[in-house]
């Protein structure tokens, strides 16, 4: 049969903790990777790359990172934009200070720098909880953006206050700068997305992830059964910030190329990524991707129908977009508080049993 | 007196006035949080929406005129009448009550018993929705709001201080008006919640939803009431901020400014919102005045948050918040 396992014949823990226990899912996953790796690079063009694919891939990394913190460890953060800015500026400083090192390592290092900053701003989480923490992370958001705006060292004393990504290449193909091939940048980001998802999946299903989830469900109880809250919370902040930083570095170097910090990494960005994981599903890897895809595709679709199709003014479409985003968030929270990922799970459960109801 | 000290005093006074305005927004947050445990992120957008509606009604704008024009190709924008300020304020208040009812009926009712964070997210969604809705309804251009409040420098204070110290303090009439209005608002809210029947019901709900239900208090009515009151507070805040800096999108960002005020004062305390507002107002103005020039200025963007963050590390429930008791 198509979507079914023939009984429960698991004989090892390895089988039991598989990511895709159903063969159909497994095949679909490999097919998806094959399509993404082999077919998409040949058919991709600049419009699709810049309007849909690059933002989707980069936001997916950011959403994965934030999901670790909010969805798995239960520490609400509104500082994502600030941490993305740390990643971007760290990447810029590294790129300009060590031009000979491959950009791949710069981006990883930028993530590491962000992880350190995340640790620092995660420290109050040991004392402050819930909403208070959410508001406290705003301190990170506003302080970091201000810092990058005001301290000239960060933007190498450039007159405009902007940072511009110098030209860098991987395996001889340019991935940053003005003259890049669509497929090269796409594949470069795809590698990071794949690695991030793999790492997050394996972290969250292991001991670390279980500690995070214990802290999320009730931190005092977790502490009593022997989870160290200091280590669990701070590791969540560090891991989350790492991926958010990588996303910020890619966003700056590969996608935008030139960044003005207040505009690119303002508070709106924090909310955008937060919406992605709410709509996609808190505490779910699939959810991070689904949410990122949704929030990237919806404005493009709306714009194409309203401005392109009906010929309305752009600002009108922008207002409608706000309304629709807000309305959808409300709708999802009311109908399915656990997001697209939970809908997907329900569909899968139904499929497994089909045509029987139970 | 040395000039520097005089400047500092002037800055402090202006900070106090700004703090009152922050406190006005924070007050709306506290009311809703106390009564329903909802952290209402949309409070700032409610202020924006109220101010937009007020201006729209005053000028006799046609609601949704942009949308109507886009769909039907017409060119309507104004009815051509002008509504007096008092009547417009009353009408806007009615709109805010209607809004409260809609929110309760279509959003909150479906989210009963959800964890706080989900409700918080829902109000963020609400904020986005209202922002788009308000702009769609009344247009996104910057508008002037004038309901007859005095504006400009207060000359009595200017002259008196000039005679005393040889330096005239600059204090805006509007800020003084805002302070008076805020005091009236706080006093009447306190009286309402302490002595009226509905006020007591409100406090009962804040204390324990289920116990309140079991003694026959209608939760739904209370929620509509609370959101209406928060709507009025938003209207007042919207009028004050709108008269000061015009009605525009950035008005909704004052919600973000009110958050550190809340953290400092505690989410559950009305006096806390006032005191927190004053501390933040004075603190950020003085910091900008004394330290700002040394580090490049524009510290107002983050000072309040960092102050609140540091403060919370030592006192996690804020100044006047209820002590957080945790058990398994």
From TrEMBL, chain A:
Q: Where in the cell is it found?
A: Cell membrane
Q: Which domain of life is it from?
A: Bacteria
Q: How does it sit in the membrane?
A: Multi-pass membrane protein
Q: Which UniProt keywords apply?
A: Cell membrane, Membrane, Transmembrane, Transmembrane helix
Query: Where is the chain membrane-spanning?
Result: 27-44, 51-74, 103-123, 130-148, 183-200, 236-259, 271-302, 322-344
Question: GO CC terms for this protein?
Answer: plasma membrane
**Source organism (scientific name):** Maritimibacter harenae
Record-given protein name? Branched-chain amino acid ABC transporter permease
- Which GO molecular function terms does the record list? branched-chain amino acid transmembrane transporter activity
Automatic annotation (TrEMBL), chain B:
Q: Which UniProt keywords apply?
A: Amino-acid transport, Cell membrane, Membrane, Transmembrane, Transmembrane helix, Transport
GO cellular component labels: plasma membrane
Phosphoprotein keyword on record: no
GO BP terms, alphabetized: amino acid transport
Compartments annotated for it: namely: Cell membrane
One annotated GO molecular function is: transmembrane transporter activity
Signal peptide stretch: none
Checking Pfam families in the record gives:
BPD_transp_2
User: Which topology term describes how it sits in the membrane?
Assistant: Multi-pass membrane protein
TM stretches of this protein: 6-31, 38-57, 81-103, 110-130, 176-196, 217-241, 261-282, 289-314
Q: Which family does it belong to?
A: Belongs to the binding-protein-dependent transport system permease family. LivHM subfamily.
Q: What is this protein called?
A: Branched-chain amino acid ABC transporter permease
Q: Which organism is it from?
A: Maritimibacter harenae
């Amino acid at each position: 049969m198509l979507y079914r396992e023939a009984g429960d014949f698991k004989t090892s823990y390895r089988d039991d903790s598989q990511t895709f226990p159903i063969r159909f899912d497994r095949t679909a996953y490999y097919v998806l990777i094959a399509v993404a790796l082999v077919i998409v690079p040949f058919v991709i063009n600049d419009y699709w790359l810049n309007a849909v694919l690059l933002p989707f891939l980069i936001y997916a990394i950011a959403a994965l990172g934030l999901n670790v913190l909010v969805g798995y460890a239960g520490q609400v953060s509104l500082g994502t934009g600030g941490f993305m800015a740390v990643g971007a500026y760290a990447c810029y400083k590294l790129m300009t200070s060590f031009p000979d090192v491959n950009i791949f390592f710069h981006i990883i290092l930028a993530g590491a720098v962000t992880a350190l900053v995340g640790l620092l701003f995660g420290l109050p989480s040991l004392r402050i909880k819930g909403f208070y923490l959410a508001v406290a992370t705003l301190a990170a958001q506003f302080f970091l953006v201000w810092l990058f705006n005001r301290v000239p060292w960060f933007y190498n004393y450039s007159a405009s206050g902007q940072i511009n990504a110098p030209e860098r290449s991987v395996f001889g193909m340019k991935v940053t700068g003005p003259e890049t091939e669509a497929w090269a940048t796409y594949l470069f980001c795809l590698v990071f997305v794949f690695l991030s998802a793999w790492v997050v999946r394996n972290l969250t299903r292991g001991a670390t992830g279980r500690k995070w989830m214990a802290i999320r469900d009730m931190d005092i109880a977790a502490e009593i059964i022997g989870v160290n809250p200091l280590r669990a919370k701070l590791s969540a902040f560090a891991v989350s910030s790492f991926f958010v930083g990588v996303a910020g570095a890619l966003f700056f170097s590969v996608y935008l190329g030139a960044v003005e910090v207040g505009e690119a990494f303002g508070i709106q960005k924090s909310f955008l990524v937060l919406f992605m994981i709410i709509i996609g599903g808190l505490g779910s890897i699939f959810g991070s991707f689904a949410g990122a895809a949704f929030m990237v595709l919806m404005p493009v679709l709306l714009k194409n129908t309203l401005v392109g199709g009906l010929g309305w003014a752009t600002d009108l479409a922008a207002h409608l977009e706000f309304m629709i985003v807000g309305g959808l968030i409300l709708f999802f929270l009311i109908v399915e508080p656990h997001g697209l990922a939970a809908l997907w799970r329900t569909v899968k459960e139904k499929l497994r049993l089909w045509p029987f109801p139970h | 007196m040395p000039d520097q000290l005089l400047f500092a005093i002037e800055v402090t006074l202006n900070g106090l006035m700004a703090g009152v305005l922050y406190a006005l927004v924070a007050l709306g947050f506290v009311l809703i949080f106390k009564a329903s445990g909802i952290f209402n992120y949309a409070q700032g957008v409610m202020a924006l929406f109220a101010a937009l509606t007020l201006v729209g009604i005053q000028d006799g704008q046609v609601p949704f005129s942009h949308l109507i024009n886009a769909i039907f190709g017409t060119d309507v924008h104004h009815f051509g009448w002008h509504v007096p300020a008092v009547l417009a304020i009353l009408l806007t208040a009615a709109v805010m009550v209607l809004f409260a009812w809609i929110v309760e009926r279509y959003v909150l009712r479906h989210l009963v018993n959800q964890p706080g964070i989900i409700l918080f997210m829902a109000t963020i969604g609400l904020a986005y929705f209202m922002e788009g809705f308000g702009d769609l309804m009344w247009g996104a251009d910057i508008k002037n709001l004038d309901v007859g409040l005095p504006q400009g420098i207060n000359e009595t204070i200017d002259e008196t201080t000039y005679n005393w110290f040889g330096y005239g303090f600059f204090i805006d009439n509007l800020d003084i008006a805002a302070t008076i209005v805020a005091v009236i608002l706080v006093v009447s809210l306190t009286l309402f919640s302490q002595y009226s029947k509905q006020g007591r019901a409100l406090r009962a709900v804040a204390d324990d939803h289920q116990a309140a239900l079991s003694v026959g208090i209608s939760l739904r009515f209370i929620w509509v009431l609370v959101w209406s009151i928060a709507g009025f507070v938003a209207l007042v805040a919207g009028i004050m901020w709108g008269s000061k800096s015009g009605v525009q999108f950035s008005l909704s960002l004052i919600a973000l400014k009110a958050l550190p005020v809340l953290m400092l004062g505690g989410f559950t305390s009305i006096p806390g919102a006032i005191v927190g507002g004053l501390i933040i107002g004075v603190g950020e103005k003085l910091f900008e005045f004394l330290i700002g020039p040394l580090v490049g200025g524009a510290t107002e963007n983050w000072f309040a948050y960092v102050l609140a963050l540091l403060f919370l590390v030592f006192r996690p429930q804020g100044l006047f918040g209820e002590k957080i008791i945790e058990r398994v």
